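Subgroup meeting minutes
Present: P.N., E.W., G.H.
Scribe: E.W.

1. P.N. recapped why we're keeping a running log of single-chain structure predictions: easier to compare across weeks, and new members can see raw inputs and outputs side by side.
2. G.H. added today's entry (343 aa).
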Amino acid sequence: MKDIIRPSGLNNPEKARIIEVDADSSAQRLDNFLMRELKGVPKTHVYRIIRSGEVRINKGRASAQTRLEVGDLVRIPPLRTSQEADHKSADAQSGAIPAREFPVLLEDEGFMAIDKPAGVAVHGGSGVSFGVIEQLRLARPSINALELVHRIDRETSGILLVSKKRSALLHLQNQFRERETGKTYLALVVGQWPSNRKVIDLPLERYLLDNGAQMGERRVRVVSAQDPNGMRAITLVRVARLVGPYSLLEVTIKTGRTHQIRVHLASLGYPIAGDQKYASDAQNKATAAVGLKRMFLHAWRLKFIHPRTALPIELECPLPPELQAFVESAQAGEHSRVRVPSP
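Output recorded in log:
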């Protein structure tokens, strides 16, 4: 019989490992479990060894989505069968992925809330070699259970929760899954939003572009209620204030669809300023000309229940300096002569 070991990082890479799933890893997806165990190994390699059947649960094949149970025996193959994995793992350890801390809004023994800057992905993949979670893991090597609780777009700034314990991860993710959290964003849109338009309830569908060089790039669009591929999406909108030729909106999402806020607002003729995917090139050139160099979408407020104390938590993250400066210049009338084209 092979030795059974508890999760504790990489072992001898020349031999297959058998890991018994403990309570901290119960209900976790197989792919996420392996990424935690195989720090520095590329995601593409993790999925390859799952698809090939080299990873086994209780001696049987399993998919990436398989949920683990206490007592399951997970076989992990010798890692040196992949030169690519060895090479990229060495890169990570030698500093190719820079260790990085992010501004902390709240932290205790179970989780942390950070202020994610715009332009940084939350994790590697889809053409991005690393993101927030990989950098944090290198910055805090003593914490073995750092995991993303949820995700926000690469171009979006603001509040992001990262768990430090498996128990906190499960508790917080369940709140997001059951829609028990309150997520409110600040978005600046082109034009004056009608104050009586407070609810957007339009189904969304994900699709891939097929226009040559951009083939395969992910997009989202509004579809009819009868469309079988449509997923219901509900967005609540409140006008915070008018800012020159723009409207600053408080946007609360009741469902967590991909690009939900961006597509909902753009579909009604009010694209988010600086949105490279759903605003027009002419609109983006006009806002860039007056100083906006990124999409104006910020994860501003988050309400949830503390996973250990069960007390309600409400976090707020102020606008980053570049967005605050843009609002102040627009409020001062500096953009009054700028004509932003209609969609």
